[in-house]
Amino acid sequence: TRLRAIAHRLALATPLRRGRPLPAWRPTRLNARYHHAVRLAELVLRGRSFDQDWPGTVRVNGFLFDMVKVFEDFVTVALAEALRPYGGRCKAQARLHLTRERRVLLKPDLVWYATGDRPAAVVDAKYKAERTSGVPQQDLYQMLAYCTALGLPRGHLVYAKGQQPELTHHVRNSGVELVQHALDLEQDLPGLRGQVARIAEAIVSPSPGG
């Protein structure tokens, strides 16, 4: 019944044709509920958008950021810069395989190669919601897979600081250590860079026993 009612209301609506001018409309009190939706539809149909660095006629009230991607990008770039004085090279989103058959693809956020093509460290950034039960186990499994594929005795997970302190997890019967770091995002930019520098130092010169 409701669908028939909607179809009846849209009986006079016609599909838009590519290249034809958009139909004009006038905001009134009667269609006030649809103002935002119609204006957004106009932006889409006209192929328009907005950019924070480019002046234009489109006004918006805010941005929606993917904080997982923002945090991952920041850690990757900042840590690569912090590792530069130690030599070697960094590769973001390095593609490697867990199995000899190359059927299981792995893409850690950052791999540091100290000399040539020999990997020296692997890092993954994790922006997670607050948890009371510790680090998600799948993060540890994932990092263990990275270390196994790269032949590394140690892997590094970088989290946004929450309830959990910095820890080192020693994997039984493998000799692999999974180091959990935390970045305090309430710090200013120099403070964040200082924390990243300390993580880089821990990657290059790990303390005895983790």
TrEMBL record:
Q: Which Pfam families match?
A: McrBC
InterPro entries recorded: McrC
What name is this protein filed under?
Restriction endonuclease
